[in-house]
């Protein structure tokens, strides 16, 4: 059971210990976070691609800033009691910027961040044309992040994009070096088969995350398969977002073409379902109580 008195980082670590592998649900905004929580997930994720795509209509190419991401982090952490892992791309700058990223993410209520070894002009991890910084520079990023922690349980996750660029040996060597530099967990990006996960988890003395994003380089392995390969966390960064987008486009097209939404009403979440998830009825009750009280006070 999660205890709201504990720091978000500690709650995230406890979730990793309690569910093996831990399913981490991407939540694009505060309401998606509430939906994921109601579906039973124990940890959430704010995707960098999600912030860029959904909040700004931009591609995931390192265009959004720390403040852009923080705004979404604050909205999500205010709406859920679940710990939220946040995509910090390459850390939003060099050493002092990375330190600032860690402190501000902690203040915004994040449980942890992942920082990757791509160059600042980053790409999506599942697209061609990626370039990575030298291992020493990546290790410096992690050391800086660890040093900047104000909560010892805030999770610093090192993501390596090296597999697609330099191969599995380099990716594993970097992961091991990052753990030695203090990284709590490893994000193995764009892995293409279970054997590679097995190699990662055998070599790395820290929990390893598998990014099971759709339409990318990684097959849609099940939690069971990934658990057997030693994986500790399974991430679904944009699954609900992709589904929401397809549903929204279908509704827009239908209304535009048919002049009515009648054919798509059955696909919609009802007002009651929306309100139940939001706790709307409790708010309404509170309002009634408060107004009644005011009326009573006015009378006396
Ligand atoms: C995990 C990721 O970094 C993200 O921003 O959500 C993306 C996901 C994606 O584009 O499918 C990535 O893997 O680079
Ligand atoms: Mg990303």
UniProtKB/TrEMBL annotation:
| One of the protein's GO biological processes | propionate catabolic process, 2-methylcitrate cycle
The stretch of residues making up the signal peptide is none
Q: Which Pfam families match?
A: PEP_mutase
Instruction: Kindly list the cofactors needed.
Output: Mg(2+)
- According to its UniProt record, in which pathway does this protein act? Organic acid metabolism; propanoate degradation
Q: Which NCBIfam families has this protein been placed in?
A: PRK11320.1 (NF008455), prpB (TIGR02317)
Similarity comment text for this entry: Belongs to the isocitrate lyase/PEP mutase superfamily. Methylisocitrate lyase family.
Full protein name: 2-methylisocitrate lyase
The uppermost taxa in this organism's lineage are: Bacteria, Bacillati, Bacillota, Bacilli, Bacillales
